[in-house]
Amino acid sequence: MQSLMNNSGIGRVRPDNIFSWLSAITLLFMLCIPLFGNANKIDIVSIALFGNGFFGVAMLWITMAGAPYSLKQVHWIFYVTFFAIAPLFQYTSGVWPWGYSPSNTRILQVCLLVFIWGLIFVFASGSTDFVSQNYDSNNHEMLCRKMTFELTPMARTILPLGCVACLVVLLKVVGFENMFLRTTNKADIDSSSLALIISVCLRAFVFGSFALLALNARREHKYYAGTIVAGICLILTCFPTALARFNVAAIYLGIAILLFPAFSKKRGLFSFLLIMGFLVAYPLFNAFKYIGAAASFHEGMETIVGSMTAGYTSGNYDAFSVMFWCFDYLGRFGCANGLQLIGAILFFIPRSIWPSKPVPSGELVFSSLNFHFTDIAFPLPFEGVLNFGLIGLPVFALGYGFAVRMVDTHYWKSRKSYLAGAPSTLLLYYPFLLCLTFYMLRGAMMTTFTYIFGDLAVMFLLHFIAEALKKRAIQPSKSPKSPAAVLN
Hints:
Elements: H1 2-8, H2 18-32, H3 44-66, H4 71-93, H5 104-125, H6 136-144, H7 153-174, H8 192-220, H9 224-237, H10 245-259, H11 262-265, H12 269-286, H13 297-309, H14 322-333, H15 339-345, H16 361-368, H17 380-388, H18 392-416, H19 425-442, H20 445-474, H21 483-487
C-alpha cells in the first residue's frame, strides 16, 4: 500500500487536493467519535469495525489520487459510511436499526464478509493511473477543458419541446399538486413497474436534454431560451423534495460535473461533497419520504428534526445490520438460487405479465420473517449472499469490481480523446451514473436497474437524435443535373 501511495503522489499537500485531505480527515474523525467516552466499548468488535473503516479510508485516499472522481470513490465512501461508521455508532450505543440485537460473534461475521468484499473489490476494480496526480501536468489541458455539445437548429427546437411534453405527461399522471412531495409524487398507473419506468424515462429525458442544451449554449454563447425552458421543466419534474435522495444527487450533481470543470481540476471535491451529503443531506431528505400533503408546517418540521437527530442508529443507515436478518432468512428458507438476480435483470417485465416476478430483496426477507415494515433497502454485497449463499459475495464483488474498472477506464480514456462539441454517450451519462451506483450499493438491485438502464437508454436516445440531426444537416444536397447531362 505504501508503494501505491508513493506512486500516486498523494503524500504531497497541494492546492488542488485540499478536498482529498478534508474528505479523509472527515471520515477518520467520524470513525473516532463513537469511541470517545466509550472506553468500555473498545473491544474486538469496535476494533474490527474501526479497522474496516480505516481500510476503506486508505482505499478512498488512493482512488482520489487516481482520478478526480470515479465509481471507485463512490464505492469506498459508501463502504466507510455504511459498513464502518454507522455500525460503529450502533454498536457503541447498543441501538441497531429495526430492533435487532446481534451477538458479538454475528457482528464479527458480518465484518469479515464486508472486509472480504472490499479486498476482492480492490483487485477487481484496478486503477486509472493515466489520470493520476503524477500526470496532472500532462493532463492539465484535458482536466481544465470545458465540455460542449454541438446541436443543430432542429435539435435546439426538439429538445425543449420534448421537455415540455414530458412535463405535461407527468402533470397528467401525477397531478400538479402532487409534484413536490415524495409521498404523493407517484404515477397513477395500474402497473407499478410500468409507472416506475415511465417516471424514470420522462425525467431522464428532461435532465438529459437540459444538459445537452446547456453544453450547446456554452459552445455557441447564445441560444439560451431553450436552455431556460428545459431548466424550468427540470425544476418542476425533478423537484428535490419529490425524489428519492440518490436520484436528487444523481441528477443535480451529475449536471454540476458536466458544467463545472472544478470537479476535474480539484481532486477530492466530488468525494467531499458526497461525504457531506451522506452526513447532512441524506437524513434531511429522508424526512420528505414521510411528510404527507396534509401535514401541517409544525408536523413537517417535527419530522425533519426527528430524521436529522436520529443519527446513525436510524433505518437510514441499516446497510450493515440487514445482513443479520439475511442470516436468519438463509437459516430458515435457504438462498434464492439466483431468482432475485433474474428478477433484477428482467426489471422491465410488468408483474401483470409475470405474476410470480420476484419482489425486491428487502421486501422478500423482511416479509418472510414477519416484520411489520418491508420497504427496506438490501445492499449489493448481501444480494450476492441472498442469491447464492456465501459464495455469492465474492462472485458479486468480482463482477461489480470488473464492471467499475471497465467503465471508469473507458470514461477517462474518452475524456482524453474527447473532441470539442462531440462527447460520446458515456461522457454524458457517466456523471449521472456516479450517484446511481451509490443507490445500487445501497439496494435494492431490482429498482436500481430500472434507474441505471432507464437513464442509460434515454441518454443513448438523446445522443442518437442529436447526432442523426447533425449528420442530416451536413449532408451535401444533391445538385441538379446540367442540361448537357440530361441530353446525354
